[in-house]
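Whiteboard transcription, Tuesday session. T.W. wrote the C-alpha cells on the left side:
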C-alpha cells in the first residue's frame, strides 16, 4: 500500500484524470436519470394491483394448474364485465376487488394470468420439447453406421440440463429487462472502454510527460515494482467504477422497476426462459459484473503493454482505443444482422464464432444465458461463456506478463 498511495496521488493530480472521471460519472448520472424518467411512464397495469393479485392467489395454497384455472376463470369474468360497460366511464368510478377500479383489476389480472400461463404451461412444456428433441437426435445418430459423437454428446448434455425442475415461484420478479437496459448498452460500453484505455495510458506515461524517468530508473524499487504499483492503481479504479455501476443498476432496478427478489431463478423472467443453468437473478448480475471486470482488466493490461513497448501517449492511446472499440462495434453490428436470421445463415455463424474468441462479447452477457450455448472442444462440452472468460483471462495474463517483463528488462539495462 505504501507503494500504491504515491501512484494514486500522481494519477489524480492530473487534470486529465479528473476530466475522464467526471465524464464517466456524468454519463452514469444520465443513465440513472433516464431510468427514472422511463419508470414515470404509466404502464398498462398497476404493479401494486398486480402484486396484490399474485399474493392473494399464492395464499390460497392451490396447485399450479388449479391456480391457473381460477385465474383464467376470473379473468374471463372481468373481460365480460369490461365489454359490457364498453365506453361507459362509470366503470372507472367503481371500486375494484384488487385495485382502484375494475379496469385496473382487469389489466393486472390479465397480466397475472399470462404470467401464470408462462410459468406453469409454457416454461415446462418448452423444456420438455427440448429434451424430447435431444433424445430423438441421440437415437437417430446412434442408428447410423458411423455416428457423430459430437452430436450425441451435445444432445445428451442438452437433455440432462433441461430435464431438471426449475424452482420458479409465482411472484413478480419486477421489470428485469428494463433494469438490464441501462448500463448494459453499446454507448455505455464505449464510454467505459475509452475510460479504461485513457486512464491506463495516462498512468503509464505520466512520468514520461513529466520527464521524471531518469530518477525512477535510478530508484531502488526499480521499474518492475513501479509497474505493479501503477497497474494496481488502474485495476483498483476500474473495479471501483464497475462496482459503482452495478450498484447503480441494482438500485435503479429496486427503486424504479420493482426488482427486489434476487434469489429467484432467472427463468422467472420470460426473456431467460431457455436458460439451461440453475442460476438466480443475483447470480446472473454477479457473473455479468465479473465478465465486465475481466474485459476492462484485459483492456488495461493491453494498454499497459503498449505503453511499455512504445512509451508515447498518443500512439498508445490510439492503438488501445482501436483495439478496445473496433471489435466491440463489429460484434454489435454483426449481432444486429443476426436478429431474425436463421441459425444456418453466414451472419449467425460469424457471430457465434466471435462469441467464442472475442472478449468484447462479455459486455453483452445476456446472449450466453438465454439458450443452450455450449461448444465441443476435444470431446468436452463447455459453456461458450466459460470459454470466452478463459480466452480473456489468457490474453490478460499474457499482456500483463509481457508488460512486466518489458519494464523489468528496461530496469536491467538501466542498471547495466
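and on the right, the sequence the group agreed on:
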Amino acid at each position: 500500500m505504501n507503494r500504491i498511495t504515491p501512484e494514486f496521488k500522481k494519477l489524480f493530480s492530473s487534470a486529465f484524470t479528473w476530466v475522464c472521471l467526471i465524464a464517466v460519472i456524468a454519463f452514469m448520472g444520465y443513465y440513472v436519470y433516464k431510468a427514472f424518467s422511463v419508470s414515470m411512464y404509466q404502464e398498462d397495469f398497476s404493479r401494486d394491483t398486480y402484486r396484490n393479485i399474485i399474493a392473494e392467489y399464492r395464499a390460497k395454497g392451490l396447485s399450479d394448474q388449479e391456480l391457473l384455472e381460477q385465474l383464467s376463470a376470473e379473468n374471463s369474468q372481468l373481460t365480460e364485465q369490461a365489454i359490457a360497460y364498453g365506453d361507459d366511464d362509470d366503470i372507472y368510478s367503481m371500486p375494484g376487488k384488487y385495485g382502484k377500479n375494475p379496469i385496473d383489476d382487469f389489466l393486472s389480472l390479465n397480466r397475472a394470468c399470462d404470467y401464470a400461463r408462462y410459468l406453469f404451461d409454457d416454461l415446462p412444456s418448452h423444456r420438455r420439447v427440448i429434451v424430447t428433441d435431444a433424445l430423438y437426435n441421440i437415437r437417430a445418430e446412434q442408428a447410423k453406421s458411423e455416428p457423430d459423437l459430437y452430436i450425441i454428446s451435445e444432445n445428451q448434455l442438452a437433455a440432462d440440463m433441461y430435464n431438471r425442475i426449475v424452482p420458479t415461484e409465482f411472484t413478480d420478479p419486477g421489470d428485469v429487462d428494463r433494469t438490464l437496459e441501462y448500463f448494459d448498452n453499446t454507448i455505455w460500453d464505449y464510454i467505459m472502454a475509452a475510460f479504461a484505455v485513457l486512464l491506463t495510458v495516462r498512468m503509464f506515461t505520466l512520468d514520461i510527460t513529466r520527464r521524471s524517468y531518469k530518477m525512477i530508473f535510478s530508484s531502488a524499487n526499480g521499474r518492475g515494482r513501479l509497474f505493479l504499483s501503477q497497474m494496481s492503481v488502474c485495476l483498483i479504479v476500474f473495479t471501483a467504477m464497475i462496482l459503482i455501476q452495478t450498484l447503480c443498476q441494482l438500485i435503479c432496478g429496486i427503486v424504479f422497476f420493482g426488482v427486489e427478489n434476487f434469489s429467484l431463478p432467472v427463468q422467472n423472467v420470460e426473456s431467460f426462459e431457455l436458460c439451461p443453468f440453475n442460476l438466480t437473478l443475483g447470480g446472473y448480475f454477479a457473473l455479468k459484473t465479473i465478465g465486465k471486470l475481466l474485459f476492462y482488466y484485459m483492456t488495461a493490461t493491453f494498454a499497459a503493454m503498449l505503453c511499455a513497448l512504445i512509451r508515447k501517449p498518443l500512439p498508445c492511446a490510439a492503438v488501445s482505443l482501436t483495439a478496445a472499440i473496433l471489435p466491440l462495434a463489429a460484434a454489435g453490428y454483426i449481432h444486429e444482422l443476426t436478429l431474425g436470421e436463421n441459425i444456418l445463415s453466414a451472419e449467425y455463424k460469424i457471430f457465434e464464432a466471435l462469441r467464442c474468441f472475442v472478449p468484447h462479447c462479455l459486455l453483452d452477457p445476456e446472449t450466453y444465458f438465454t439458450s443452450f450455448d455450449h461448444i465441443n472442444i476435444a470431446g468436452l462440452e463447455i459453456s461458450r461463456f466459460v470459454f470466452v472468460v478463459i480466452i480473456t483471462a489468457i490474453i490478460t495474463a499474457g499482456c500483463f506478463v509481457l508488460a512486466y517483463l518489458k519494464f523489468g528488462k528496461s530496469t536491467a539495462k538501466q542498471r547495466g
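Someone added at the bottom: Strands lie at 374-377, 380-383.
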